[in-house]
Amino acid sequence: MFKKNESYKQYSLFGVTDSLSDSQRSMMETSIEHSFFVNIFSKINEKDFDVLYSTKKSRPNVPVNQLVGALILKNLYNWTYQQLFMNLNFNLLTRHALGVQSLGGSVFAEASIFNFQNKVIEYYIQTGKDLLTEVFDSLTSAQLKEFGIKSDIQRGDSFLLGSNIIDYTRLQLLIEVLLRFSRILDDEDKETYLKLLSVYTRQTAGQYIYKIEKGDLPKEIKQLAEIYHKLYVQLGEKYKDVAVFSIFNRVYNEHFVVAENKVEVIPSNELHSAILLSPDDTEATFRYKRGTNSKGYNGHISETANPGNKFNLITDVAVTPNNEDDAKILAYRLPSMIEKTPDLSEYHADGNYGSPAVDVITKNGSIMLVQTAVRGRKSQTKIKIEKDEAGDLWVSCSQGQRVKGEITTQKEGARIGKAVFNDERCQLCPYQDKCLAKAAGGKRTEKKHIWYFNEMRILSHQRLHNIYKIPEERRKLRANVEATIKEVKRGIKNGKSRLRGLVRNRFYLIFTSISVNLTRIHKYEINKVLFDYFCHIMKGLLPKTEPILIAYNAFSVKETRKTNLLMKL
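Structure (tokenized):
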């Protein structure tokens, strides 16, 4: 049965804070845990989670704000579950962050937090509704309003988020899946196929491939192809409803093909990036990016970037298969971003984010996509389209010709037009053989160089030149998103997260983004308090009391920042 947790709002006569000294209480009130209590814990809407619990009268649920808050704290400090529960039980600040006023007893049992996550995932699978993303959106929306953060200008980037799986070779994967299938066979089938499988079942997949010479790999894989085919044909119908067989079936169809009643191995260079990489994570995909192989997912974040903001907040989070293009991810996220931040009018991204689909969405949403680079190789024969204030199109080539574009016809909703260049000047151009404007016409005197365009081409050219329409000081805004990417990747080691599965990795990125936003809010609030306090000290309105000085020195800010702060006084 769902019950809302409001016990933290009730004052306790015997609360632990009553036994603290003034100095200790001051340090607690300037801690990030107190900021967490005020800005995160107390603002989690527990009512959204009542769908996870029975409507019948029964034992009340563990407080949802404590469960969600604990998961955010875990990501804030990059704790393991063991470290989380150690702090929940013995760390006064951690308990304060979750509204617990006493030191007696456990906050909740360890099983509760795992059961809660499983319920959220199961609900998502059944309904497609992500309750934890709603927590992030609700908190961020309130923070944008409370601190006056402008979201009209935003920036975004993606990064590889490796799944916590074994890096299987092809042979090792085939053997591992075969071993797992063999374990779920009934006793009769185990006896029947004992001889066939014994060479593999007496050891692990890793132990087996350790002894294999490189030159014997094709022979070994061919042998496995025969075994897979035999088991698939003879046992497929019997075990078709078993989860382990579905993985076996997938691997069989991804690595082998049957032609003329003969099973053949699909060449390695013909395997696609979405094949099964591990039986422990069926959603992970393969990506090669900037000299790095990654098996897992893509993380994508967007954050505010208006230069007038006091600080910036992450506004949107997404995790997708890592073989999806950045432009596809942006096209998928933009409608949601526009809904959450309707004032969005300028978005900064790198050259991988431009596409016809993105151009259509940004045009309809009146958003200027500012690309900091152009995708692909640079051409020596560039042609660009510009629209003047009157709405006329002007087409320019890299050799200095500028002519008016003509709209000639309408086809399937896309405008078709052309630009006719001066043939005499084109004949003198050293790049005429490579030029995108093709020669047309009959006699030489009538010959013309024409470049055809449509609506998509117009939009893409406008996108590529958006960066020149904004003030120069805003043209490098995208670069700072790299620092944010580094912040959200703090729990990733050697390119891998601690988790498997797309949903759990999305939860990781959501909780981490909430904690990054909290860190920025806390630094702003502490600096504001300290600045105001030292202003009063310098004016002689307040004494230099010990608690505030302790809190100031305890706050982890660079010495240069402290010096600059005092110089402003």
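Residues 554-560, 565-569 have pLDDT under 50 and may be disordered. The CA atoms of residues 43 and 97 lie 12 Å apart.
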